[in-house]
């Protein structure tokens, strides 16, 4: 038969450029004629499905949560080391000295003997266990109502003293020091862009061994299962009597015989060898040809099905798809039907034995196993002079108006990346995980699962269809390392010595680019298979996810400001006496040496929503003063706490220690804001007529109603009316770059380049928003 070239044509390829699997999958799945809103809806839907957040889309914050997930999926992180230690005094468990065991120790009462004396029964709870009673001492009985507090039925004076002694023993138990290492925040860095290609002729020889079995496992045969004869036509020893070498196991001889009999291209030769007469030769040939067609079809495809009783149109379409290297020649439902027909026809086969597994026989064709993507990208926006054109959006930095020109330098990078099936596996695993969760919901009873059985059946069919979907992906490995001026080989950084064991830091070979804010364009790409064959990838029709697209520049992916070196945001409590602009000492707990403890709490604010005031207290609970409204003008005023030394008209900062300066700053800021509002533009008569203090109290009350509607965190009813104390904590926010300790900077020229690059990137300011008032979960 003529050779079949399984390599697809360039016209059959569709290419997507994105940041992660969901991005490129959605871009490939969306029609080219779809609008921007339709494409974005498809991207959100696919991202929600693969992340198991479909039930969150209708929530108030569901869309934002999904966008945060899409954003975080484009980053990776590494450990950040240690942030210091906290030291505690831990009580040593030495055992009790008698007394009443309650709480977790109440389980010890489960199998005790019931008391014999009459006792007043306690009201049992719905979790009460019968007979859960315990004798204490000689004259006291206790009935335990499970999951409730114990009810003391009768206690003698001796028993009460035993209980008291047990509590004193717990308090005076010996202690030991315990040191807890606090891990630092992880360093995060942006992942390289991801290229996805649909129709690349993905090879199924790897990881697809069990595609012909119900449990997806490879079928293995015993030596007695090997086909060595055709009943009534070919005897077992007719061909390949011996391989001529005693070192070869006899099982290999049987495999050689099977190769001769099972090969569909040997039918004519076998007929001529075993049929001397022309009359018998026709019958033998027709029978052998029927056996071959039943197993291999008309074009030599060995896939566990048959084309018997298959309509001509479907047979022709399946044949065409086989030539294109498609993993499934026919539709899943029709494939199952033909597999059943094949099983029935095999009952009448003259071959004695069990046919080889699908991976054991492959009809010859021109090999095409794509393994590498050789790429070339144009990167614009390196080391921008400023970031003024980027503004902080809801999730990420973005440009308010699309700009044609990109500030900064440009460079062309090249590399080679390994092709994987990550995107296809992500979609398949998401469907399988959802189906498992749906089965669990159905098993719980009640309202059952989220969808009906018809939809669930369609999803199971979808899981089968996407398991071997012809989509391959490749990250542009080495792109970030090239921007940092580090050597790369096949996308991997060189860190292993010649001996293959010692890890050494890489030495830079070029000047680093630590900041990027621009765009990435795929300019050239080609597929490279395991046998050295290549296929050019069309880059003139690359699709990019909607959220990363550049207006009027199709195929170009926008990249917001990104630091190429691992970085992290640090929001850490520091000493309450830290001055603004100075480096503070990070807060820590030290119960062994209290003098070494660093307390970040400057004091407390207690809102009084009934009187519309705000009381200020020091760390030790002593009152400092109160913010309230003046009775005549309604302006915000400060009143020093009663009993505190100082003039009655003293300001909020009067007499404060360095640790309490933050409290005075809050109070003084509210007074200044209210004064500025009253002296400037008159208050809008149609708007809310409130002071800065009223606005703060309203924000506090709204937050409490949002996060703790019924005051479940407080134990007293007055907390729901007056309010609960709010701790004022001094904290510092910093953006840290990982020091270049993992890079060999022994060359003074390279060391100077890195020092200059770090100094240059440090001059940029990044806008930050802590908290979002429009979020109900913030």
**Which class of secondary structure composition applies to the elements?**
alpha+beta
**Global outline:** elongated
The quaternary state of the protein chains shown equals: single chain
End-to-end gap: 68 Å
Strand content: 15-25%
Radius of gyration: 38 Å
Q: Number of DSSP helices?
A: 16
Bin the helical content: 25-40%
Give the strand tally: 27
- Could you tell me the mean pLDDT? 80
Major β-sheet annotation: 6 strands, antiparallel
Low-confidence stretches are 95-154, 313-329
Describe it.
It contains 16 helices and 27 strands. The model is unreliable at about 95-155 and about 315-330 (pLDDT under 50). The chain is elongated. It is of the alpha+beta class and about 775 residues long. β11 and β12 form a beta hairpin. α1 crosses α2 (about 35-50) and α10 runs antiparallel to α11. The strands form 9 sheets. Strands 10, 13, 17, 18, 19 and 20 form a 6-stranded antiparallel beta sheet that branches. Strands 25-24-23-22-26 form a 5-stranded antiparallel beta sheet, with helices on one face.
